[in-house]
Fold these 4 entries.
Entry 1:
Amino acid sequence: MCCGEKADARRAAGDGGAFQEHHRFSQRRACRLVQRHRATIRYHARPAAQDGVRERLRALAAERPRFGYRRLAVLLRRELGAVNHKRVYRLYRQEGLAVRRRQQADRLAARPVSAAPQRAGEQWAMDFTQDVLANGRAFRTLHIVDLCTRECLAIEVDTSLPGARVARVLDRLCERHGRPTTIRVDNGPEFAGQVLDAWAYQHGCDWTSSSRGGRCRTATWSASTASSATSASTSTGSSASPRAAAHRGLAGR
C-alpha cells in the first residue's frame, strides 16, 4: 500500500466523515469529536515524480550488477542531487532488482581493451601482493605503476593496507606527479570499497577494472612487482620464506 492509500484509509477510519454524513455535522465539529486537525483531514498526498530516478536506477543497476541499493544510492546522489536512500530502496524492490551472483562465465568474459597510454602520467595501474615472512607474519605490498613509462611510482608495505591508506598514497602521488586520467585495477575486493570509489569521483579519475591477463598483467608489470616484493621483504629485517623468494602468485596470480 502506498502513502496515498494509507492516508485515505486513515481518513476513512477516523476523519469524522460518518458524523458529517449521518448527523450532518460541520467539518469543524466532526474534527473536534474525533480529535483530528482539519489540516490533516484536508491533506492529499502529492507524490514526487519517480520516473527519472527509476529509469536511472535501472540503468545503473545494469552497469554495476554487483552494486546493492546503498552503492547505487551514492551514484544517484552524484547525478541527481539529494535522493533519500529509503526512496532508492523502495524503487529497488519495486523493480525487482538484486545483486547478481557472479557466474563463471562472467569471470572469464573478455573485457574491452582500453587504448594504450600516449604520455607519462596518463594511466596508472595498482595491485596488491601478499606473502608470509619466515617468522609466519603476513605482509602486503601495494604497487602503483605508470603504464606508459613502466615506472613504479610507489610501493607501500604493511601488514594491513585499508582503503584510507591507499587514498593517502594516491594523494601524495598526485601532488608529486599530477592527477592521472585513468587508474586501472583488478577485480579483487581490495579496490571495491566506498573510500576509493569516492576518491576517484572527487578527483575525476576513471576507475576501470582490467581482466585477467590484461594490460596490468604484462611481463614488465609482473617482473617489477616480483622484484619489488623481494626488496620489501629484505627491508623488513626478516628473511622471506621460500614461497616469497619464488614469488609465487606475484607474477601469475
Entry 2:
Amino acid sequence: MDKDKPPHTEPSAKPEVPEKKHEKPQTQVGESPSEQKPGAPSEMTQAEIEQAFSELTERLLRLTAEFDNYKKRTAKEKEALAAQSEGRMMVRFLPIYEEIGFAEQGVAKIADKHVRDGALLVLGKLRKGFESEGLQPMKLEGEKYDPFRHEVALREESGAPEGTIVRVIKQGYLYKGAVLQHAIVSVSSGKKKDEKEAEKPGEKQEAIKGNKEVGE
C-alpha cells in the first residue's frame, strides 16, 4: 500500500518581496499636497520678481508713449485735411474778396458823405469777415523774391537791389499762413548798364585816392 502512494514533497518556499515604502510627495512652500503638480517650477526669487516687474513697467510706458504719439499724429492729419478742404472753398471766394477791394475804391469817389460812409462800412465788414477766417493778402512790393510764394513774369532794370519785387501783376494770398494763391510779380534785375558804367569812373578815382593815402 505504501508503494502505490506518491512520494511526499515539501512545498517550495515563496521568494520574499521587499515591501514598498510609501514616500510622501514633496510640496512647495505655501502649497498643499493636493495642489502639487509633477514637474512644477520652483518658486521665483525676489530678484526675478523685481526684474519681471521692471520689464512689464518699461513695456507699459513704451506702449503709452506710442499711443500718445499716434493720437497727436492723427490729430495733425485731421487738422491738415480740414485746412485743405477749407482752403479749396476759400479759393472760390477769392474773386468776391477782390471785388470788395475794387468796390471800396469806387465807393470812395461818391460825393454824398452818408452814402459813401455807409457803403464803406458794409464793405469793410465783409472784408474783415474774410480776414478773420484766415485770408490774408501778401505783402509784395519791396519784398525779396521768394520762389515758394511768388512767380516771376518779368525782370525790370531799376534802382532796387536785384531780386526785389518792383511790380505786382497778380495779387497773392495766404490762408492760415499757407499759400492759397501764388503772386505773379516783376522783379528787379539791377541798375541799368549806363548807370553802372557812370559809377565806375568814380569808383576808380576813389580807389586811386585810397592807394595814394596808403603810400603816403
Entry 3:
Amino acid sequence: MKTGKSVRLLTLYAAMALSLCVGGVASAANAAASDEEKVGDAAAAKILGSMKVINNPTAQTYLNTLGASIAGLTVRANLAWRFTIVDSADLNAFAAPGGIVMVTKGLLKILDSEDELAAVLSHEIMHVVRKHHYNVIVRQRLADELTQKMAASESNQSMNALSNVSSVIYARGLDKSAEFEADFQGIQLLAKAGYDPAALIGVLEKLSKIQAGDSRAELLFATHPAALDRMDQIARINSESLPSTSPSALRKTRFQTFKSAL
C-alpha cells in the first residue's frame, strides 16, 4: 500500500474512533484481520486515494452513532462497523467489505432528513451484509490467479494487488440485481430501525432530478441503475407490510445540527 493511502486509511480509523463503536474498531485493529477485512481495508484505501476524510469530530460522531445503531440490527452486527464522511462534492456513498461505509459530503448536502440519511446508510449496510463487493472481488481475484500470493503474505505487494482488483470493481459497479437487493433489504432494515421506509424514494427522487452531465454524479450514474428504474423496482414492494413513521422533533433537530456542522 502506498504511504499516502496508508495515511488516509489511518485517518479513517482515527475519525471512526470517535464513535460509540470505538471498542470494536480498536480490537479489530489489534486482531488478525479476516480476509474480508483485508479486502475492505484495501478497497477503502483505494477510495481514499482520491478523497480525504473530513476533519469534523461532531459530524463524524453523529454519522457513526447513526450507522452503528442501524448496522446493529443486522445479522452481521458483530462486524467492526466504521462510518465516515469524505470531503468530496460528488454525490455518492461506498460500502467496503468488513463493515466500512463512506458517504460523500456532497451527497449529505442534498439530504433533507435523518430518515433519508438512514436510507442511504441502510442501502450501503446491506451491501456489506450480503457481501456483494466481497464476493465479486474474490471471484475476480481467483480469475487473476492471485489467491495463493495473497494468502501467503501480507506484504505491500499483496495489498497493492488487492487494491488494484478493488479499483476495477468500484469503477464498473455491481450488477443491477445486487443494487436492487440492497434497495429492497435496505428498506426493510430502515423500517426495522424505526425510520420511514419511503425515505429511500425521497433520496432517489432527488437523484433522478440531477442532470446527466452533472460531474458530481458521474461515477454514481456509471455504477448504479437509473434512479427511476430503482424507484420502479421499489414500487413492487408491498409497502402496506412496512410500518410508517414520522420523524420526532429531536430527530429533526439533531439532523439540522449535523448538516450545519458540515
Entry 4:
Amino acid sequence: MNGKRKLISFAVMVCAIFLGAVGFYGVKTRYEPKTDSGAQELPPTVYTTDAGYYTDPPTVPEPTETAPAATEPEPAAQSSAVGETAPAAQTTIEYETVNATLPRPEYFDIPLGMDISLDYSAAEPVFSSTMGDWRTHTGIDFAGVLGDPVKASAAGFVTAVYDDPMFGTVMEIDHGGGITAKYCGLDKGSAVAVGTEVKMDDTIACLGVVPCESESGAHLHFEMTEDGKNIDPLTVITMP
C-alpha cells in the first residue's frame, strides 16, 4: 500500500514539473516579440518630453546651412588715368586777376586830410632834401600827424602789405578797372590784412614815416597806376 502511494506521488510531481515547464515556455514565447528571421526584438524605448511620452525616438532636425549675408560690392578705386573727371577745385580769389574783374569805382576820395605837401611830378625831377639829389616824384604827399587814420580812397581788395626800405610800410589796394593804389609810409603793424575787402573811406592803417622823405615831416605818399603805368592821382580823385 505504501509503495503504491509513493508511485502516485512521484507521478503527480513529474506532471507538475512538466506542466510548469510548458506554461513558462508558452508565456515567454508569447510576450517576447520576434523578427521575421526569428531573432528576438528588444522592447521599444519610451522617451518622455514636456508634452508627454512616445515610443519613437525624437527626430533631431538636421542643421541647415545659413547663407552668408549679402555684402555690397566695394566701390572701385578711382583712377587717375587721363580722361577721368577730376573734382572741381575750390574757388579762390586770385588777387592778380581781381583788377580785370572789378568795375572801376565812380568816385575816389582823398586818403588823408586836405594838405598836399608835394605834388605828382613824374616828368620833371624835384630835389629831395632827405636823399640830397634830384628825382622824379611819382605820387602825391598828403601831410598829417603820426598816428592819423589813413582811409581807403575807394572800394577794393587789399592785395599786398609789405615793408620797403625807402617807403616804409606799404599797402596795395586793387580798386578795379585797372587802377591800383599804393599807400606808403604807414605805421608798422597797423595795416589791415591782405585779402580784406574795403569800402571808400574805410580806415586801413595809421600814419607812419616815409624813410626816403623823412625831412618833409609826417605824410602819406600816395601813388596810383592804371594798367601798370603811373598816373597822377588827382586825375581820378574827386576833390571837394
